[in-house]
Prior knowledge:
Elements lengths: L14 H6 L10 E8 L5 E3 L7 E4 L3 H10 L5 E6 L16 H12 L5 E5 L13 E2 L2 E2 L1 H18 L3 E4 L6 H11 L8 E6 L6 H7 L19 H13 L3 E5 L5 H10 L4 E5 L1 H12 L7 H13 L3 E4 L2 H9 L1
Helix pairs in contact: 2-3, 3-4, 4-5, 7-8, 8-10
Amino acid sequence: MAFPEQRARRLRRTPALRALSRETRLAPGDLIDALFVVEGRSVREPIAAMPGVLRLSVDQLADEAKKIADLGLGGAILFGIPASKDALGTSGYDPEGIIARAIRAMKRATPELLVIADVCLCEYTDHGHCGVYRDGEVANDETLPLLAKSAVVAAEAGADVVAPSDMMDGRVAAIRRALDDARLADTPILSYAAKYASAFYGPFREAAESAPKSGDRRGYQMDPGNAREALREIATDVEEGADMVMVKPAMPCLDVIARARERFDLPLFAYQVSGEYSMLQGAIERGWLEAPRVIDESLLAIRRAGADRIISYFAKDFARRFRG
């Protein structure tokens, strides 16, 4: 047989040729940083399970916002950790609560920076579940008004986007109605539309102090064995008024990201979650994996699968290297 005329290696021979033929590219603007905000002053507290990630007090957010903006990142998503919690998560929708003050601090410091408010009750409830908890279950419909109130408080504080992550049925519609009624019709909703009951969330629950005190979240988050269900969940949230949708976690769900990209035209986010971050960091620290290549490859794979934007704890690290 004659040797084939097509030689794929021609375009792999040099860095310049590889760059020329690269199909998927990643830039700082494609990444969203994630911040944990706590009470107190001058707090920059390391999170043991997430090496390199800090809990920050509100007074530290101005400098953080400027760093994120200067690095050209696509924005930041905020998670609040209150000083006190109760059964209904009231600090999550307190106009003077930790998340509202954090949003105002970020927007005062850097008005042009995109600030996303995570909307959920798990960080604010004393039982650690994502809604009103009764008789061992989360009461879906009782939770919806509280989520809607949380979204309105965040938007009034200046959040550019509200992002419900609770996985209650009907939450997007409830939030959309509440925003519209509050004359906040221009505030977009980024729905955690396909959020799995994943084992990769462990480090986050330490960071946000949000682990359930009893039971688990498999009654409302998705079964990791289901992919078609994810498309139904996304379609439902789009029908209810979601402007953008998210798949979480990212690495174990690359197939879901790809299928969602093929079916939906809305902006598609993926969350490279705490377990993905900590797993890579742990291997890097032990010399088992090579940084920064493994970081960049992990992010590129999520982008290649079809995600328009990626929430990642590696965001600042990538952006610093990208800018040289």
